[in-house]
Amino acid sequence: MRFLGAVTTALLLSLCSAAPQLNHANHALHEKRDGVPHQWQKRDRAYSHAKLPIRIGLRQRNLEHAERYIRDIADPDSPNFGKHWSAEQVANTFAPHPETKDAVTNWLIESGIDRSRISYSTGHNWVQFHSTVDEAERILATEYWHYMHESGGYRMACDSYSLPQHVQRHIDFVMPTIQLDGLRPVPRVSGILDGPLPNGAKLGSEPCGVLTTIDCLRKLYKIPESHTAARGNEMGIGEWVSYLNEPDLPLFFKNFTRPQIPGNTKPEIISIDGGKTANKTTVAGNLGLEAALDVQTAYSIIHPQNINVYVVGDGVNIDSSGTFNIFLDALDESYCTYKGGDQPYVDPVYPDPNDDGDSEDALGAYNGPLQCGGAPKSNVISVSYGQIEGALPIFYQHRQCHEWMKLGLQGVSVLFATGDTGVANQYNEEFPSACLNAHDDYFDVNGTRYAPSFPVNCPYITAVGSTAFISNNTADGEKASDELGAISGGGFSNYFALPSYQASAVRKYMREFAPNYGANVYNDTGKARGFPDVSAIGLNGPIIFNGESFAVSGTSFSAPIVAGIVTLLNEARLAVGKRPVGFLNPMFYKHPEAFNDITIGNNAGCGTGGFNAVPGWDPVTGLGTPNFEKLKKIALELP
What we know:
Layout: E1 15-16, E2 27-32, E3 40-45, E4 51-58, H1 66-74, H2 87-94, H3 98-110, E5 119-120, E6 126-132, H4 133-140, E7 144-149, E8 154-157, E9 160-164, H5 165-168, E10 171-175, E11 186-187, E12 191-192, H6 214-221, E13 235-240, H7 248-256, E14 268-272, H8 280-284, H9 289-302, E15 307-312, H10 325-331, E16 380-383, E17 385-388, H11 394-409, E18 413-417, E19 435-436, E20 443-444, E21 453-454, E22 462-469, E23 478-480, E24 491-497, H12 503-512, E25 528-531, E26 534-537, E27 541-545, E28 548-553, H13 555-575, H14 585-590, E29 595-596, E30 625-626, H15 628-637
Parallel strand pairs: 13-15, 13-16, 14-15, 16-18, 18-22, 22-26
Antiparallel strand pairs: 1-7, 2-9, 3-7, 4-6, 4-10, 5-6, 7-8, 11-17, 12-28, 17-21, 19-20, 22-23, 24-25, 27-28, 29-30
Helix pairs in contact: 1-11, 9-13, 13-15
C-alpha cells in the first residue's frame, strides 16, 4: 500500500506565509494552518510568474438547515420518515445563491482577473481560474513559498490567507493555499495476523475466538441466511488502491460461506478515474488485502444479493485517490468539480500527469477526465478507510461532510470504519499511531492529545468501531478490542458539533463516565460529535488472499458486517413495499435496545487509557453491536 505521505513526484509546487506586501485593510483572515507541517521543510519564495490553479469553493445555500432536513426524513418519529429526496431536489436546495456567484466573480474581475479566465463547475459550486503566484498573493494577501518533502517532492502553499470582508461570507475556502499534508485514505485493517491459517481451515475448523466465520456472526448477531436479492439493493463498497483479486472468491465461497455461494459469483466493478481489479502486478505487491476482507465478508452475509465495488483512483498519481472527493464526484454530478474545485494536492489531477504509457498495467496512469457523475448509488455504502481530522483544513472537511448528508437525504446509508489505533490515529504506514500536539492540535507521532478521525467525525456518517470476544465461548459476549493494531477508534471531534440525535447519549456519558484528563487531552466540552455510533466484532475475520487462507483484524472487518446487516434490513423493507432505511443514526439512537451493550475494555492511546466501555453509548464501541432480529422488527414497523 502506498500513501500520499510518501511523495514521489518531482513536480515543483510551493507553500506560503501570510505577509502581505500591499495594503489589505479590508481583508480578514480566512484560514490559517496550525502547527509546523509534518515532513515538510520551508525553502524559498515561490517564483512570481509560476502558475497556480486557483479553485474557490462557493458557500452553498440552506446548509444551516441540513440537520433539520435530514432529521425530517430519518427520525423514526417524523411523519416524513423514509420520504427521501431526489438528486434534483438536493441540487436545487443547496446550490449557491446567484448573489454568491456574482459577488465572487465581480471581486475577481475587480482584482484584475479577466472574465474570460473564469470558469465554473457543473453545479456552479466552484469558481476556477489559473493565476500567477504574484496575482494570487495580491488577491489573497499572502506569500507563497516552496516547501520540500523529506522524500524529495516540492509543493507551493501558504500558512494563511485572507479575503475581503464583503466576499468572505460567500466562500468556503480557496485552494491551493494552506494544504500540505493531504493523505490517501488509510485502510482500517491491521494486516495479516500470525501468518496463514492452517491447511484446511474452513467453517467449523476453529472456535469463534480464533476464526470469526459467518456461522459465528449469525450466532452472535442473530443474522439469518439470506434468500432475496431485490433489484437495486446491491451493497456498495469503496476501495482506494486496493485491488480485488477475483480468482480468490471461489475458494472463499467454498471454505467460508453457508449456504455455499456459487463459485462464478462476482461483484459489479465500478471503475472511478482509472480504478481496476487486480492483476499480476497488484497481486505481487499485496495491494488487495482490504478489498478481499471487505468483499468476502459482505458476500458471506448478504448473498444472493450482489455487491458494487467502487474502485477509486489509478494508483499512480500520488494524489490519485484524493480524500474521498473523487468518489463523491462520481456519485453526484452536482458536486463534481471537473471544471473547477478539486484541490490538486488533496484531490487528483486527471488526465494523470504520471502517465507511464502502459494502458494494460493496473498501476498504469489514467488518461481520461475526472469522472463527473454516472456511478450508480447504492442504498448502503461501506468504507473501511479514513484519515486524521487534524491533517485536513476544517472548511474542506465541512464541505465534504455536507456531501455525505446529501447522500443521506437521498436514502443512502453511509458507514465508515473508525480505525484501529484507539484514541490515536493512523497517518500512514511509516507512522501507524499519531496523536496531536497539545498546543496547536496539529498531528504529531509524539503528540499527547487525542487525534479524531475523518470522515467518521462527520455527523451524517454512521461510524463503526470494533469489539472482540471475551473468550472462545461466544456466549460470554464481547468486549472492546484490546488487540494491538485493532483497538477501536473513538473519541470526540474538534471540528464538528454534537448532533441532536446523539445529544442525550453523549451528555449522559459525559456526566457519568467521562475521564478526567482535561481539555488538553481531548474535547471534553460535551458539545462535540462523538464516535463510533455502533460496533461489530473486529478480530480474526477469515479471507482468501492470493490463494491462501488468513485471519485479518480491524474495523475494516467490523464495517462490512454492520453494512451487510443494514442491507438485509433494506431487503426486508423492500419485500413489503417500503423504502430503504437511509441515514441510520436517528433510528439507531432512538432504539439502543436493539444493540448488545459493551461494557468491558477501552481504547487506549496517546499515553493514556483512552475511554472506557460503559453502560449505554461510549466513545469506544458506541451503542454496542447489532441484534438483527430486533433491528428488523423496528425497521419493518417504520413507514
